[in-house]
UniProtKB/TrEMBL annotation:
Signal peptide: none annotated. Keywords: Acyltransferase, Transferase. PANTHER family: AMINOALKYLPHOSPHONATE N-ACETYLTRANSFERASE-RELATED (PTHR43877:SF2), AMINOALKYLPHOSPHONATE N-ACETYLTRANSFERASE-RELATED-RELATED (PTHR43877). This is N-acetyltransferase domain-containing protein. Residues 138-272 form the N-acetyltransferase domain.
Length: 272
């Protein structure tokens, strides 16, 4: 591919410039907005491509975090993203989260480790939230550091959950116990108080407790508490084939804003 000469690249743009673009779609860019803030900004790069003659822009979050790993999340012009990929040194083994618009560009350079998976990005606001119709048998409680060993034990049984104990104290978690075991839990992946955005994740119920309303109650508790703390937008990701979870979120008032493709990938070639 010949050089894209009409694009100007900034390898890591300023927070103000990044925010001006990312804020155009707060749902799509919820993680990127979180990564503009400390402590995540230390590990985040925001590559910016600007058309030299015109108003087209593209921005790409490149995260390199010791616990979370490498992540790529693009936004904006597909041609601008092509300029970024062509001119920038990209991560070797990232997790990619991208709209279908950007996949042809990304797939010039990256191959998935397995297959790309479809994922829905859903969001709820104070005006659209709905309360659950019933509550499960065991009470839902906010979790503290003293609950961390039991919480880690739950997630250790489900390695598909990306849980970082290092980030636990910076977030908000709820769970339910049966005896000394946590049988269901969920929390926040990211909090952005400056922009009143919260991102939920790791909502999980042990197999023996499924179908009893724990995921619904925990999600509702998280959202209600976040709105009480003056957050105005709560976002989550769910795989598009997880029909039970999607139904839960829809009953609570979440609406789908975007379909993304995601997966672990490896850098297969570099274009000059």
């Amino acid at each position: 591919m010949p050089p894209l000469l009409d694009w100007h690249l900034t390898q890591d743009t300023s927070n103000d410039q990044a925010y001006a673009i990312l804020a155009q779609d707060r749902v799509m860019n919820c993680f990127s907005l979180a990564d503009l803030e400390p402590p995540m900004r230390e590990y985040s790069q925001f590559a910016l491509a600007c058309q030299e003659e015109g108003d087209e822009r593209a921005i790409c979050l490149i995260l390199r975090h010791p616990s979370i790993g490498e992540v790529i999340s693009p936004f904006g012009s597909r041609e601008g993203m092509a300029a970024i990929m062509q001119q920038l040194t990209m991560p070797e083994h990232p997790t990619i989260q991208a709209q279908e618009l950007h996949m042809p560009v990304l797939q010039r350079y990256y191959q998935p480790e397995t297959t790309w998976r479809g994922m829905l990005r859903m969001a709820v606001t104070p005006s659209s939230i709905r309360s659950p119709l019933s509550m499960p048998l065991q009470p839902i409680k906010q979790l503290t550091v003293s609950d961390l060993p039991a919480l880690e034990s739950l997630y250790a049984q489900h390695p598909e959950s990306v849980f970082s104990a290092d980030l636990f104290t910076q977030g908000l978690y709820f769970g339910a116990y049966a005896g000394d075991r946590i049988i269901a839990a969920g929390g926040t992946h990211a909090l952005v108080p400056a922009h009143r955005i919260a991102v939920l994740g790791n909502i999980l119920t042990a197999p023996e407790a499924r179908g009893q309303g724990y995921a619904t109650a925990i999600t509702a508790a998280l959202v209600e508490t976040l709105f009480e703390q003056r957050f105005s937008l709560v976002v989550l990701n769910v795989y598009e084939d997880n029909t039970p979870a999607i139904s839960i979120y829809q009953r609570l008032g979440f609406q789908t804003h975007h379909r993304l493709l995601t997966g672990q990938a490896h850098l297969s070639r570099r274009e000059a």
